[in-house]
Amino acid sequence: MSSRRTDPRRIARPRADGTERGRNTLYENSLLPENGLEPVPTPAWPAPGEHALLGARDGLLVVDLHGDVDLATATPLREWLDSVVALRAPAYVVDLRRTTFIDSTGLNLVLRFRRRVREYEAGFAVVCAPRTVRLLRAHGTLDVLDPAPGLPEAASRIAGR
Fold first, then answer.
1. Rounded distance, CA 141 to CA 149, Å?
2. Residue 74 phi, psi dihedral angles, 5° rounding
3. Is this structure's pTM higher than 0.90?
4. Largest CB tally within 10 Å, which of 24, 25, 79, 154?
5. 111 with 149: CB under 8 angstroms?
6. d(Cα 9, Cα 62) in Å, to the nearest integer?
7. How far is Cα 31 from Cα 158, in angstroms, rounded to an integer?
8. Smallest Cα–Cα separation from 96: which of 123, 127, 124, 71?
9. What pLDDT, in 10s, does the model give residues 57-88?
10. Strand, helix or coil at 69?
Protein backbone atom coordinates (compact mmCIF):
# COMPACT_ATOMS: atom_id res chain seq x y z
CA MET A 1 0.00 0.00 0.00
CA SER A 2 1.44 3.34 -1.00
CA SER A 3 1.39 6.24 1.35
CA ARG A 4 -0.10 9.02 -0.67
CA ARG A 5 0.10 12.47 0.84
CA THR A 6 -2.33 15.14 -0.12
CA ASP A 7 -0.85 18.42 -1.27
CA PRO A 8 -2.21 20.97 1.24
CA ARG A 9 -2.56 23.52 -1.57
CA ARG A 10 -5.07 21.26 -3.34
CA ILE A 11 -7.39 20.72 -0.42
CA ALA A 12 -10.80 22.29 -0.89
CA ARG A 13 -11.08 25.14 1.58
CA PRO A 14 -13.97 27.50 2.19
CA ARG A 15 -13.52 30.98 0.76
CA ALA A 16 -14.11 34.16 2.68
CA ASP A 17 -17.55 34.46 1.08
CA GLY A 18 -18.49 30.97 2.35
CA THR A 19 -18.26 29.13 -0.99
CA GLU A 20 -15.90 26.21 -1.41
CA ARG A 21 -12.98 26.28 -3.80
CA GLY A 22 -12.41 23.50 -6.29
CA ARG A 23 -9.68 20.93 -5.79
CA ASN A 24 -7.63 22.06 -8.80
CA THR A 25 -7.15 25.64 -7.69
CA LEU A 26 -3.69 26.40 -6.32
CA TYR A 27 -2.70 29.08 -3.86
CA GLU A 28 -6.04 30.58 -3.03
CA ASN A 29 -4.80 34.16 -2.57
CA SER A 30 -2.19 34.26 -5.33
CA LEU A 31 -4.26 36.52 -7.58
CA LEU A 32 -5.62 38.82 -4.93
CA PRO A 33 -4.16 42.31 -4.39
CA GLU A 34 -3.26 41.49 -0.77
CA ASN A 35 -0.27 39.44 -1.87
CA GLY A 36 1.49 42.58 -3.15
CA LEU A 37 1.78 41.42 -6.76
CA GLU A 38 0.84 43.72 -9.60
CA PRO A 39 -0.98 42.35 -12.63
CA VAL A 40 1.28 41.73 -15.61
CA PRO A 41 0.45 44.18 -18.41
CA THR A 42 -0.21 42.93 -21.90
CA PRO A 43 3.03 43.16 -23.89
CA ALA A 44 3.13 45.95 -26.42
CA TRP A 45 4.57 44.24 -29.50
CA PRO A 46 6.16 46.57 -32.02
CA ALA A 47 4.11 47.12 -35.15
CA PRO A 48 5.51 45.29 -38.19
CA GLY A 49 6.09 48.66 -39.84
CA GLU A 50 8.79 49.39 -37.28
CA HIS A 51 10.80 46.38 -38.45
CA ALA A 52 9.75 45.85 -42.04
CA LEU A 53 8.97 47.70 -45.22
CA LEU A 54 7.45 46.47 -48.44
CA GLY A 55 8.34 47.87 -51.82
CA ALA A 56 8.65 47.00 -55.47
CA ARG A 57 12.10 47.41 -56.98
CA ASP A 58 13.53 46.01 -60.21
CA GLY A 59 10.33 44.04 -60.82
CA LEU A 60 10.56 42.31 -57.43
CA LEU A 61 8.44 42.52 -54.31
CA VAL A 62 11.06 43.44 -51.71
CA VAL A 63 10.54 42.71 -48.02
CA ASP A 64 13.01 44.98 -46.26
CA LEU A 65 13.55 43.80 -42.68
CA HIS A 66 15.41 46.15 -40.40
CA GLY A 67 16.26 46.64 -36.75
CA ASP A 68 15.98 43.65 -34.45
CA VAL A 69 14.32 40.56 -35.89
CA ASP A 70 14.00 38.27 -32.91
CA LEU A 71 11.60 36.62 -30.51
CA ALA A 72 10.16 39.98 -29.41
CA THR A 73 9.21 40.93 -32.97
CA ALA A 74 8.36 37.45 -34.29
CA THR A 75 4.59 37.45 -33.79
CA PRO A 76 3.71 40.65 -35.66
CA LEU A 77 6.33 39.97 -38.33
CA ARG A 78 5.00 36.45 -38.94
CA GLU A 79 1.48 37.77 -39.41
CA TRP A 80 2.73 40.54 -41.66
CA LEU A 81 4.85 38.14 -43.75
CA ASP A 82 1.80 35.88 -44.14
CA SER A 83 -0.14 38.83 -45.52
CA VAL A 84 2.71 39.59 -47.93
CA VAL A 85 2.67 36.00 -49.22
CA ALA A 86 -1.08 36.37 -49.79
CA LEU A 87 -0.29 39.05 -52.41
CA ARG A 88 0.88 36.18 -54.68
CA ALA A 89 3.64 38.15 -56.37
CA PRO A 90 5.75 36.36 -59.01
CA ALA A 91 8.98 36.96 -57.03
CA TYR A 92 9.99 38.01 -53.53
CA VAL A 93 13.27 39.25 -52.10
CA VAL A 94 13.98 39.46 -48.38
CA ASP A 95 16.52 42.19 -47.73
CA LEU A 96 18.35 41.69 -44.44
CA ARG A 97 21.05 44.33 -44.95
CA ARG A 98 19.44 46.78 -42.50
CA THR A 99 18.92 44.29 -39.68
CA THR A 100 20.93 45.14 -36.59
CA PHE A 101 20.20 41.83 -34.88
CA ILE A 102 18.63 38.59 -36.02
CA ASP A 103 18.36 35.45 -33.90
CA SER A 104 17.25 31.91 -34.70
CA THR A 105 13.60 32.93 -34.35
CA GLY A 106 14.12 35.63 -36.98
CA LEU A 107 15.92 33.21 -39.29
CA ASN A 108 13.09 30.73 -38.88
CA LEU A 109 10.66 33.47 -39.93
CA VAL A 110 12.67 33.96 -43.12
CA LEU A 111 12.75 30.19 -43.74
CA ARG A 112 9.01 29.92 -43.14
CA PHE A 113 8.41 32.83 -45.53
CA ARG A 114 10.61 31.13 -48.14
CA ARG A 115 8.71 27.87 -47.82
CA ARG A 116 5.33 29.60 -48.18
CA VAL A 117 6.53 31.58 -51.21
CA ARG A 118 7.82 28.40 -52.82
CA GLU A 119 4.47 26.68 -52.24
CA TYR A 120 3.01 29.20 -54.70
CA GLU A 121 5.92 28.56 -57.08
CA ALA A 122 7.08 32.16 -56.84
CA GLY A 123 10.71 33.21 -57.01
CA PHE A 124 12.60 33.84 -53.81
CA ALA A 125 15.95 35.37 -52.90
CA VAL A 126 17.68 36.82 -49.87
CA VAL A 127 19.96 39.85 -49.82
CA CYS A 128 22.25 40.34 -46.85
CA ALA A 129 25.46 41.88 -45.60
CA PRO A 130 28.64 39.83 -45.00
CA ARG A 131 28.03 39.81 -41.22
CA THR A 132 24.69 38.09 -41.82
CA VAL A 133 26.33 35.57 -44.17
CA ARG A 134 28.49 34.47 -41.23
CA LEU A 135 25.34 34.04 -39.13
CA LEU A 136 23.65 31.98 -41.87
CA ARG A 137 26.73 29.77 -42.10
CA ALA A 138 26.73 29.23 -38.32
CA HIS A 139 22.98 28.56 -38.35
CA GLY A 140 23.34 26.02 -41.17
CA THR A 141 21.06 27.89 -43.56
CA LEU A 142 23.61 29.45 -45.90
CA ASP A 143 23.11 26.84 -48.64
CA VAL A 144 19.33 26.92 -48.28
CA LEU A 145 18.94 30.70 -48.46
CA ASP A 146 21.91 31.30 -50.82
CA PRO A 147 22.07 35.06 -50.14
CA ALA A 148 22.97 37.63 -52.76
CA PRO A 149 24.98 40.77 -51.96
CA GLY A 150 22.49 43.14 -53.65
CA LEU A 151 19.15 43.46 -55.44
CA PRO A 152 20.52 43.17 -59.00
CA GLU A 153 22.20 39.86 -58.11
CA ALA A 154 19.01 38.65 -56.42
CA ALA A 155 16.97 39.52 -59.52
CA SER A 156 19.37 37.61 -61.76
CA ARG A 157 19.24 34.57 -59.45
CA ILE A 158 15.44 34.57 -59.55
CA ALA A 159 15.45 34.98 -63.35
CA GLY A 160 17.88 32.07 -63.70
CA ARG A 161 15.99 29.63 -61.50
1. 16
2. -65, -45
3. no
4. 154
5. no
6. 56
7. 56
8. 127
9. 666 889 999 999 999 999 999 999 998 888 88
10. strand
